Amino acid sequence: MSLPLIALFIAAFAFGTTEFVIAGVLPQVAAGLGVSVPSAGYLVSGYACGIAIGGPLLALATKSLPRKTLLLGLAIAFTIGQAACALAPDFTSMLLLRIAVAVAHGAYFGVAMVVAVGLVPEDKRGMAVAVILSGLTVSNVIGVPAGTAIGNIWGWRATFWVMCALGVAATFAMAALLPRTAGYQAKPAGLAREVRVLARQQVWTSLILMLMLMLGQFCLFTYITPTLLEVTGLDEDLVPWVLLLNGVGATLGVFLGGKLSDWKLMPSLITMLALQAVTLAVIYAVSPYPLPMIVAIVIWGGLNFAIGTPIQTRILAWTADASNLASSLIPSGFNVGIALAASLGAAMLNAGYGYRSLPVVGAFAMLVAVAVAVVSQLWEARSNATPPLTAPAE
């Protein structure tokens, strides 16, 4: 892994950790700010909205900036935001600060992925995307448990001070290691061109695949703990270890997806989508049995992130000539999908279907994704279209 990619990974790890660690310290934050735990939950949904809405807007507003300058600015905003969260006097200020950091988060991942694929040869783009995505998975495996432990020992404000220090490290790493001209565009594409590239079928079909992937993942993952407790019958103390194994599987899956993206992107993607449909059906079948369920959950976690890598690589390849808006829609799409999946899961449970029904919804979503991916590939083959060239470097 090249040093510039390591710098981008560190910042991705920082953003991922601060997004997810709030769940680990939510009761302490609620008590410290004088609100109920359900009210404190808005710190999670507010962050997701900040990514989904604010990220693309900020990316468009800053498209004329050199990308290294923009990435450093976003890392500095992250660092200041963590310090401000650590000092937040009340819930309202904490919520607004979290949303502001989330806007920087959404813009960061869009820009970082474009820069990452610009740092490597064309046949290594998938692995470059995988490195950025691995920042999110590793944050769940290492960052979130560590941040939660720090919060339990020294209080939730200490967690945010550690995040602030991580932001400082990410800022200095990018300042020192990123090439000055990596991933730059000589002339930023106009808004009309940024929008037009979204009409390419490879782009909008990939966004549909992203939505289906989130339904396949978060309809179940949002409620994975009660599913493991009530359906599988696991002891409560074992659930964190299952989630850890799921995170390890996800991290391995990211790099598997990167390798497959650089080898045979669409055939690999279609195959993995079909395998995920089968895996979710297996989860439904084995959910009452602990050992098979744990194995299936780990495989499911690996496939979730293995699939995400080629989807994002494809979007970046087909929007290389006007990438600002499209790349920022990647984290937005994921967060919109997460929100829809969680809501659909809640509707299923409220309708009385039970936790065991959730992987069935995911399996159907994966079958829809297989059909969309096959049609998209056939459409592309018939048109003999090729991805656009990257805009010339500055």
From TrEMBL:
Residues 4-380 form the Major facilitator superfamily (MFS) profile domain. The chain crosses the membrane at residues 42-62, 69-89, 95-120, 127-154, 160-182, 203-226, 238-257, 269-287, 293-311, 332-353, 359-379. Pfam families: MFS_1. PROSITE patterns: MFS (PS50850). It is a multi-pass membrane protein. InterPro entries: MFS, MFS_dom, MFS_Efflux_Transporters, MFS_trans_sf. Coiled coil: none annotated. Gene3D superfamilies: MFS general substrate transporter like domains. CDD domains: MFS_NepI_like. PANTHER family: INNER MEMBRANE TRANSPORT PROTEIN YDHP (PTHR43124:SF8), PURINE EFFLUX PUMP PBUE (PTHR43124). This is MFS transporter.
